[in-house]
Structure formats: C-alpha cells, structure tokens
Design a protein that fits this description.
The complex is a heterodimer of chains A (309) and B (384).
Chain A: H1 10-13, H2 17-23, H3 26-59, H4 65-72, H5 83-94, H6 105-136, H7 138-151, H8 156-169, H9 175-198, H10 203-211, H11 216-250, H12 260-270, H13 273-305
Helix pairs in contact in A: 3-4, 5-13, 6-7, 6-9, 6-11, 6-12, 8-9, 9-11, 11-13, 12-13
Chain B: H1 7-21, H2 42-60, H3 66-89, H4 98-119, H5 126-154, H6 165-174, H7 176-211, H8 213-226, H9 235-242, H10 246-269, H11 274-282, H12 287-322, H13 331-341, H14 344-372
Helix pairs in contact in B: 1-2, 1-4, 2-3, 3-4, 3-5, 4-5, 6-14, 7-8, 7-10, 7-12, 8-10, 9-10, 10-12, 12-14, 13-14
Classes of the chains: A mainly alpha (309), B mainly alpha (384).
Chain lengths: 309, 384
C-alpha cells in the first residue's frame, strides 16, 4: 500500500458492507427469509380467496381487488393465516395473557418443555450408560447393538397414545409418560454417537495408556471420555430436537389438556388455524433455542478442554 | 478359559439347583393349595436337571468353542420350552413363585454365556462368520421375547398393560385382512407417494442449488436448521388443506423428507475429489456429463444416507398425521381407535406391523445401497 491509497474513496479500499454480506451466509439467508415471507403473503391471498369470494357472493356485496386482498389477510379462520395475524396471536397469547391462564402460550410451552427436558435428561443418561457398556463389554456390543438400532424401527410416536393411555390407567398421568416417549426417542442418537466417540481415540493413544499401566477405568476417564465430548454434543443437538417432537406427539392422544401438542390438536378440532400456526411457530422457536443453548454449552466445554474448533 | 471357573455357568447351575428345591408356585386362592410341584412336572424337572448338569460341566470344562455355545443354547431352548409349557399347560400363569423364577434366572445366566461364546467366535470363513453374526442378535431377540412372555404370564400382568407376545401373534394372524387394508392405506398409498415425491423433488432442488452458489449459501443453513424443528406439527394444517385421505399424509411426508435429502445431496455433490474433476475437465466433459458420470455417482452414499433417514421418518409422519383425521382405515386410525376401546392386542398387532414395515423398508433401501454403491470403502469385508 502506498501513501496515496489514503486519498482513495473508502469504498474502494475494501468490499462494501453489502458485498461482504452477500459473500457470506448472512445476506443469502436474509434474502431467502424475505422471499419466504413474500411467498407466504402471496400464498395467503390465493388460498383464502375462494372462501372470501364465497362470502361476497352470499352477502351480494360488490368488491374490488384491493378490498379482496386486504380481506383475505384479515379473515377469522383463514385457510392460511397471514404472518401478521400469527404474530398478533403469538403476542396476545405470550405477552398479553397471565402466565397461569390456560390461554397463555407460555404456560403450554412450559408444560411441553418440562417433559422434553426430563425425557432428554433421562435419555441422555441412558444413552451414555449403554454406550459405555457397549464399548467395554463385547457380548453387549454383539447382542445389544443390533437391537438398539432396530428399536428405532418401532414407530414409537405411533405407540405414544397407547403408552399414555395405559400409564394413565395405572394412575401415571401428566409429565412422566410423555417424558418416557422423549427418552425412547433420544437415547438412540446419544448411544450411537457416544459409541463412536468412545472408540475415537487412536490405537497409539490407547497403547500409551497401557504403557502407563492405566486401568480401564483410568483410560476411560483420562482418554475415552474427553475424546467422546465432540461426538456427545453433536448427538445432544439431535436428541434435544427429537425429544421435543416426542413431547409434542405425546400430548396428541387422549385429548391432553395442556401443552403445545394439545394446542395443535384443539386448533385442528375447532378449525382455529391462527392458533395452530402460533403453536407451531412457538414450537419451532423453542426447538431452535434449545439447539442454540446446547451449542453454547458445547463451545464452553470444548474451550475449557482445550479443543480447537 | 481353561483352568478358570466359568462364573456364568456356575451361577446357572446354582440357580437351577435351587429351583429344584424351592416351591414352584404360589397358593391358589380357592383351594389354598400350591398349584404345582416339581414332582408332577417331569418335563420341567428334566430341564432343570439338564441345566444343573450343563452348568456344572461347563463351569470347569472350559473350551471356548462354538460347539459349547450351541450345546448351552440348545439346553436353554429346551428349558424355555418347558417353562412356557408349564405356565400354560399346568395353570401356573399368574401363580409362578420363587422356584420358577430361579429357573428363569438360571436360563438367563446360561444364555448369556452361550451368546457370549458365539459372539467371540472368530473365523476367516466369511460364511460361518456371517452366520455367527446373525445368530447372536437373533438369539438375544428370541430370549427377550421369551422373557416378555414368561414375565407377563408368570406374574399375571394385566393384558391392558402389556399383552404377552403370543397373544399379539395370534391376533396378528387372525386379523390379516384388517392389517392388510391398513397397510395399503398408510404405507402403499401415503408413505410411498410422499417418500418418492419428497425425495425426488429435493434431489432436483439440490442440483439447482448446487448450480447457483447464492442459493447454496442461503438455503443450506436454513435446511440444517429445519432438521431441528418439529415438522410433524404441520400435520393438522395439511389435513385441513388436503382432506382426510392419503394425500394429506403424503404432503406431511413430503415436507418431512425434503430437507434431509436436500442437505445430504448438496454435500454429496461436493464429495467428488479435485483430481477426478480435473480428469473430467481434461476429457472436455461439460457440466451435465460431469454431473451424471462423476458427481452424482460420488454423491450416492450421501443420497442413500438421506433415503435411509427418510424411510423411517416417512412411516412415523404418516401414522402421526392420521391422528389428526383419517378415513376409517389406516394404521394410525386403527391404533387410536383401538386404544379407546382397550383392544390392546390389536394395537400391538398394528405396532408389530409398523415395525415390520419400517424394518423392511429400511432394509430394502440398505440393500439397494449395497447393490448400487458396492464400490464404497464402507462395504469392504473386514478381515480380522
């Protein structure tokens, strides 16, 4: 760089903010999201139009295009609610209602989230214990591993209603049955990931432990467990997402009274489309947040362990 | 093994010996007498003695051969058969007591050792090794079914809670017509249509995305994020839009299967190495011929990975979507209505059907993968 470079306009000194944004991921993702909103609005207009035209015809009302468009975006029970309607519903049920009320989405989210986290905790523990067993006991590996894999071919989400009904008949209601479904779903990725992770140390490292005359337990604590951490966190992200799905599906049968799944079902019974979309977007937001939290944990833990990202 | 004591066989022998001494059954409420004694049951008694003899013999005589494992397993099979015959043939169901459970524990210890011996079997003969690798999980699975049967029958577990597998099997065989109708509705119509359409469209979109880097940078992060979302929640919306029949289920499956396929295919299209691409360039091969001759074949392992993931997703999506409204046929419909009627055996028969269908579907995809991508390193035979 020569000194006369300073006299150049700053724009030429480097790429513009716009250019930088479009080079990376931020710009394209934003464009896609904006595109999604546009498609959503256009879709809402078109999908709600037939119903609106019916209404005009029945009321023998005259209409013009601008009236029609604004009406399709303001219906009570639209086929596809417009984004601003969903946003309004979410604001109303999240911020404008008392937290303890049955109408509050925060309350329903908490019901779903608590069983998600319980199931996730138990499932993770179970998955880690199974993986440790599989890695250390050959008989377990040979006999259990195929069953761990085939256990996932049972569509547990399909059995969910039965588990809930049966446990309900036994007097177990509410949190625990739902959490069991989450557990069943999320132990699997943890087991698979941890088996991979606990086996990830190189032979040369394992041999080093042997030269130190380390016991299996010491090898586990000092070598296998730390090397499995990246694998564990990758699995946890998958596991927490599916345990939320498990909790939501666990709320569908038996007309559960509370939870995001119950909101979905109630909305579909009474044709409250705005309510369905609000519950759905809330669930999506919760899922994304949980994955973010796990990622933050991962970052901290791996940093403390000195793993370079 | 030689010179060491085989603990599992010893435990098996001890428990079998105890089972000969302890009472087999509890007391019948009506008569106040024990239901069954070992002396009345020559079959069961001989099985117990066989377990004692086998256990003691193999505790000290420890040559770890397959023959040993097979003998142990045969004795266990005989014991298991006698145990079930006693449960159902002599009215022990619901009254089983210490002696009986000790016999089961003895079988458990023996079966563990039998499976263990075969699991540790190593040979260079590929066919024999394969057979051993199949026998181990199979034996374990059959053992689990046996335990399930014995525990539900022996303790007299109420059938609403958990019916024994034999009851489920009988119901399955007796209602094949209903099961077939449900299978046709849910699997042959909804799952296959949604799966083919979802995976196919995602494949085409992935090729388009691969062509345009801007799309790649914009869509891939979103696609990765979508995999964490509870997509199954769109089921009620799809039922509203597409009606109660299979079309709404197929729509849910299309949405569920789209993103895994998209993300996997896009990363698969980048799997071909620089060297191979340069080679194609030296052949003056254009975009399309490079795509079809090099990049798509190289992406096949990734594509099949997504196909396998989606095969399980599709079935679950269809069944859950049926909870939100169906015509009066389909697996999800049957499960939710029969639960309401407390016909638990029918529900379990449907679950067995779903598990079979899911396993077969996954297996078919895995087999196709083996055929199509046999060149991939992951399919090389591992020599021990």
């Amino acid at each position: 760089m020569t000194t006369d470079a300073a006299t150049l306009p700053p724009a030429a000194a480097g790429p513009t903010l716009w250019g930088r944004m479009m080079k990376g991921q931020t710009g394209p993702v934003c464009v896609m999201l904006i595109g999604l909103f546009v498609i959503w609005y256009v879709g809402a207009v078109f999908m709600n139009m037939p119903g609106q035209l019916d209404r005009y015809a029945r009321a023998k009302q005259d209409w013009n295009v601008s009236q029609l468009v604004s009406a399709t975006l303001e219906q009570d029970r639209p086929v596809l609610p417009a984004p601003h309607q969903v946003a309004a519903e979410m604001y109303k049920t999240i911020f404008a209602t008392k937290l303890t009320s049955k109408r509050s989405l925060v309350y329903h989210t908490w019901v779903t989230l608590s069983s998600t986290l319980l199931g996730f905790g138990i499932g993770t523990l179970l998955g880690v214990v199974l993986a440790v067993g599989i890695v250390h006991v050959q008989t377990l590996e040979k006999s259990l591993m195929p069953w761990v894999i085939s256990s996932q071919t049972i569509p547990i989400l399909a059995i969910a209603p039965m588990i809930i009904v049966v446990l309900g008949a036994l007097g177990l209601k509410g949190l625990v049955p739902k959490a069991m479904i989450s557990t069943y779903l999320c132990f699997f990725p943890v087991t698979i990931g941890m088996v991979k992770g606990l086996r990830s140390p190189d032979l040369i490292q394992l041999d080093l432990m042997r030269t130190y005359n380390a016991s299996r337990w010491q090898t586990f604590l000092a070598l296998r467990w730390p090397s499995a951490m990246p694998f564990l966190f990758a699995s946890l992200k998958v596991a927490i997402a599916i345990s939320l799905v498990g909790a939501i599906v666990g709320e569908l049968p038996t007309g559960a009274q509370s939870g995001l799944g119950a909101r979905l079902l109630a909305g579909s019974y009474y044709g409250q489309t705005v309510q369905i979309w609000a519950a759905l977007l809330t669930a999506a937001f919760v899922a994304a947040m949980m994955v973010v939290v796990v990622s933050l944990f991962e970052k901290r833990v791996l940093e403390r362990m000195g793993v370079r990202a | 093994m030689t010179g060491k004591i085989d603990k599992f066989c010893l435990v098996g022998a001890v428990f079998a010996l105890l089972s000969l001494v302890f009472p087999l059954s509890g007391v019948d409420i009506d008569t106040g007498k024990n239901v069954a004694f070992v002396s009345d049951l020559p079959g069961l008694a001989s099985a117990m003695v066989a377990c004692v003899v086998t256990g003691v013999f193999f505790t000290w005589y420890g040559v770890n051969t397959v023959l040993r494992g097979c003998i142990i397993l045969l004795v266990v099979v005989f014991g298991a058969w006698q145990a079930i015959a006693t449960l159902y043939g002599h009215g022990l169901a619901g009254y089983a007591s210490y002696g009986f459970w000790m016999f089961i524990l003895s079988l458990w210890a023996l079966v563990w050792r039998g499976i263990d011996v075969i699991a540790n079997y190593r040979t260079l003969d590929h066919g024999k090794q394969q057979t051993a690798n199949v026998i181990v999980p199979l034996a374990f699975g059959i053992w689990l079914l046996f335990l399930w049967e014995v525990i539900t029958a022996g303790f007299g577990v109420p059938q609403v809670l958990l019916p024994p597998p034999s009851m489920i099997g009988v119901r399955f065989v007796n209602s094949t017509d209903i099961l077939w109708d449900d299978f046709r509705q849910t699997f042959l119509k909804a799952v296959l249509a949604g799966y083919i359409f979802g995976c196919g469209s995602a494949l085409l979109v992935a090729i388009a995305v691969d062509r345009v880097p801007f799309l790649k940078r914009g869509l891939l992060p979103l696609g990765n994020m979508v995999s964490a979302l509870p997509i199954i929640g769109v089921a009620p919306i799809m039922v509203m839009w597409f009606g109660f029949d299979w079309q709404s289920k197929a729509a849910v499956i299309v949405i569920m299967t789209f993103f895994p396929m998209l993300v996997n295919t896009v990363s698969g299209l980048n799997a071909a190495g620089r060297l191979e691409r340069d080679l194609m360039a030296t052949y003056a091969s254009g975009y399309w011929s490079t795509l079809f001759r090099l990049r798509l074949p190289a992406a096949l392992p990734f594509i099949f990975n997504a196909l396998k993931i989606n095969s399980t997703l599709a079935l679950i999506g269809a069944i859950v979507a049926e909870f939100f409204g169906t015509p009066i046929v389909g697996m999800g419909f049957r499960i939710s209505t029969e639960v309401g009627r407390m016909n638990v055996d029918m529900v379990w028969a449907e679950i067995a059907l779903a598990a079979l269908a899911g396993t077969a579907f996954y297996g078919a995809v895995a087999l196709a993968e083996r055929k199509v991508t046999s060149w991939h390193p992951s399919f090389r035979v591992r020599r021990h």
